[in-house]
Amino acid sequence: MSRDPVLVVYGSKRGGTAEIAEWIGESLRAAHVPAQVRAAREVHSLEGFGAVVLGGALYTGRWHRDARRFARRFARQLRERPVWVFASGPLDTSTDDGSDGNAFGAKAVHKCANRVDARGTALFGGRLEATARGFPASAMAKKNAGDFRDRSRIEAWAKEISARLG
Ligand SMILES: Cc1cc2nc3c(=O)[nH]c(=O)nc-3n(C[C@H](O)[C@H](O)[C@H](O)COP(=O)(O)O)c2cc1C
Question: Which CATH architecture has domain 6-165?
Answer without folding.
Answer: 3-Layer(aba) Sandwich (3.40)
